Each structure stands twice: as C-alpha cells, then as structure tokens.
C-alpha cells in the first residue's frame, strides 16, 4: 500500500487550512485578507488578485488598484459581501480597505471561527484516514497482502493521521494566540 497518496491528500488539507487562515481579519492589514475574494466583473467571476494590484499602505490599510477602473465598484461590492468587518473607501482609480482594531468580542468570534476551521480540517483528515483503512482492508480481503502487512498498514495510517492532527492543533493554537494578542 502506497501511503504517499494519502499523505499528499492530508498535506493538501493542511495547506487549505493555512490559506483560509490568511484570509482572516486579525486586526492588521494583510493582502491575504482580500486577494482570494471572488469579484463579479463584466467578464465573469475572477479572483481579486487577478484583476487588481494589492498592496499594504500601512499597518491598518490595504490599497487595491484595479487594472480596469470600471472594476472598482465590483471590487467594493465583493469586499462588502465577503463580510470581513472592514471599511472600504472607493477613490475611483483605487480603493482603500481600512482594517479596524479588533474588539475583544470580535477576537472571540474569530477564535471560534479558527477552531471550527481546525475541526473541519480534522474531519477531512478522518475521511482520508478512512479511505486508507478501506484500501488496506480491501487488499487484505482480496488476499493481495498478508495479515501482518495489513496490520502494519493500519498502524502507519494511524501514525500519519496522528501526526497531521497534531499539526492542525499547532496551527489552530498559533492562530488563536495571534488573534487574541492585543
């Protein structure tokens, strides 16, 4: 049984979690907050970073310069709809996104959101684990591997799952600490 396939699937789940964490508003300006927002343009839905230059002006301001000025209104609407808890100032040729300081209540909400994202990722890891367990059981049932190999495969899958769950726990812990830091 080749564990690398299942390892890759679990790594993708972790990478997705890290990407989602970048999009959280944690009280300071980051390009990750807006760059993956889908914007409805005249040409269809596109990611923000595909239709505009996104830069950080200062600790609390993101500057977005659309390559097509006609998209400024669409970008502002997409940011409002994303409900990020930020203010948008449309200057016509560019937009300023102001990231407010977080209140304790908002910090608590984001911490809950981070924990929920972690649980969702763990659920995805469990699905991959179940696939791997079913695959090794199928091989054992078909008599293509011995019982010893079947048990070894199961223990390898369990070890991989524990390792990935520990990584998820660490990522969640670090992000919660970052969010709660005043």
Account of the 3D structure:
By secondary structure, the chain is of the alpha+beta class. The chain has 5 helices and 6 strands, in the order H-E-E-H-E-E-H-E-E-H-H. A 4-stranded antiparallel beta sheet has the order 3-4-6-5. The chain has a two-stranded antiparallel sheet with strand order 1-2. Strand 1 and strand 2 (44-47) form a beta hairpin. The model has no long low-confidence stretch (mean pLDDT 89).
- The CATH first-level class of the largest domain comes to Mainly Alpha
Low-confidence stretches: none
Order of helices and strands: HEEHEEHEEHH
Report strand %: 15-25%
Q: In total, how many domains does the architecture comprise?
A: 2
User: What is the overall number of helices?
Assistant: 5
**pLDDT average, as an integer?**
89
Name a few traits of the molecule.
about 180 residues; alpha+beta; Gyrase A, domain 2; four-stranded antiparallel beta sheet; two-stranded antiparallel ribbon; 6 strands
Can you lay out the helices and strands and say which pair or pack?
Layout: H1 4-22, E1 38-41, E2 44-47, H2 48-51, E3 52-58, E4 61-66, H3 72-82, E5 87-90, E6 95-98, H4 104-141, H5 147-180
Antiparallel strand pairs: 1-2, 3-4, 4-6, 5-6
Helix pairs in contact: 1-4, 1-5, 4-5
């Amino acid at each position: 049984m080749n564990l690398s396939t299942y390892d890759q699937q679990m790594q993708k789940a972790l990478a997705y979690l890290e990407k989602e964490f970048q999009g959280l508003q944690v009280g300071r300006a980051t390009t990750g907050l807006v760059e993956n927002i889908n914007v409805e343009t005249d040409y269809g839905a596109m990611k923000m970073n595909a239709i505009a230059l996104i830069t950080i002006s200062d600790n609390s301001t993101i500057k977005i310069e659309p390559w097509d000025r006609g998209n400024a209104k669409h970008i502002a609407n997409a940011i409002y709809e994303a409900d990020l808890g930020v203010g948008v100032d449309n200057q016509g040729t560019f937009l300023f996104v102001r990231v407010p300081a977080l209140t304790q209540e908002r910090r608590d909400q984001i911490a809950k959101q981070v924990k929920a994202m972690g649980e969702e990722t763990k659920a995805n890891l469990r699905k991959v684990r179940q696939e791997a367990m079913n695959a090794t059981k199928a091989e054992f049932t078909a008599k293509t591997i011995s019982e010893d190999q079947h048990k070894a495969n199961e223990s390898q899958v369990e070890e991989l799952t524990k390792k990935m769950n520990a990584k998820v726990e660490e990522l969640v812990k670090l992000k919660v600490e970052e969010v709660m830091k005043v």
